[in-house]
Specification:
The complex is a heterodimer of chains A (145) and B (110).
Chain A lengths: L6 E9 L5 H14 L4 H23 L6 E9 L2 E8 L23 H8 L2 E5 L7 E8 L6
Antiparallel strand pairs in A: 1-2, 2-3, 3-5, 4-5
Helix pairs in contact in A: 1-2, 2-3
Chain B lengths: L1 E7 L2 E10 L4 H13 L3 E12 L1 H17 L3 E4 L3 H9 L8 E2 L2 H8 L1
Parallel strand pairs in B: 2-3, 3-4, 4-5
Antiparallel strand pairs in B: 1-2
Helix pairs in contact in B: 1-2
Classes of the chains: A alpha+beta (145), B alpha/beta (110).
Chain lengths: 145, 110
């Protein structure tokens, strides 16, 4: 018996600009709520994906001008997978780490928020033509824990 | 996001509403720093905030720090559930002075 493939739930492509983020958030919210996620977790997932997209806009594309971001949402046997692809130069993943929260200062919170919300976060090998692919996973059923 | 400002007691109250995200947080930051820069005590009313991201939170942290530097009062009031959830995730809910309302803050000032 073959293993079931992850179920594709949604895909959205946006310009890597701040005014496009609302559409991304709306897609995440609608998709995860349709999967039976409660409102509180849904808002956490919206925040985490939004923060990841903000990092792409600010750091991956940075001053290089605009590019595109593609978000795919899948359900892999009770685990929601948020796959965020950009077409920017590869980022140095060794430099990405959450900051010390005792150091009260503006900025640097995004990575921490993503890690707080998601079960797993990792950069995966990008397909040809893509720059970076960040996968964030969150189990939403007891069976998948 | 929209904002409205008013004076109450010794404070300028900046009421933010809607989504304070990467697109709108520069406006929130500008307002907060503007009034603190004028030497005014500031309360940020978050009761109408439906969403806030780390850039919005950073604007609040910047205000908090500038107020400390200038020895002014700064705080948050009426924090919505959505905003509180993010402050808790960022572990800033115990850092900012937070009150349920402006009246509550004024009463605590004595």
């Amino acid at each position: 018996m073959t293993e079931a493939s992850p179920q594709a739930l949604a895909e959205i492509r946006i310009a890597a600009q701040a005014d496009e983020l609302k559409g991304l958030r709306d897609t995440v919210r609608e998709t995860v709520l349709a999967q039976g996620v409660d409102d509180k977790l849904a808002e956490c997932l919206v925040l985490a994906v939004d923060e990841a997209a903000v990092n792409v806009i600010r750091h991956a594309y940075g001053d290089s001008g605009t590019g595109e971001i593609v978000l795919q949402i899948l359900n892999n046997r009770g685990v929601l997978v948020f796959r965020l692809t950009d077409f920017a130069p590869p980022v140095d993943t060794a430099r990405i780490c959450p900051r010390d929260l005792d150091d009260i200062r503006p900025g640097g919170l995004g990575v921490h928020l993503i890690a707080e919300v998601m079960d797993e976060v990792e950069f995966v090998a990008p397909p040809p033509g893509a720059g970076n692919v960040l996968e964030m996973r969150k189990a939403i059923t007891a069976e998948s824990n | 996001m929209e904002y409205q400002t008013r004076s109450e007691g010794s404070y300028t109250v900046i009421a933010l509403s809607g989504e304070v995200d990467l697109y709108y947080s520069p406006s929130a930051r500008e307002q907060i720093l503007k009034y603190l820069g004028r030497g005014q005590n500031v309360l940020v009313d978050l009761s109408g905030v439906s969403y806030i991201d780390s850039s919005g939170v950073a604007s609040l942290v910047e205000g908090y720090q500038l107020a400390r530097t200038k020895q002014l009062a700064f705080g948050l009031v009426g924090v919505s559930d959505a905003a509180m959830q993010v402050l808790q995730l960022a572990r800033l809910d115990k850092v900012f002075p937070i009150h349920g309302s402006v009246a509550e803050r004024l009463a605590s000032d004595g």
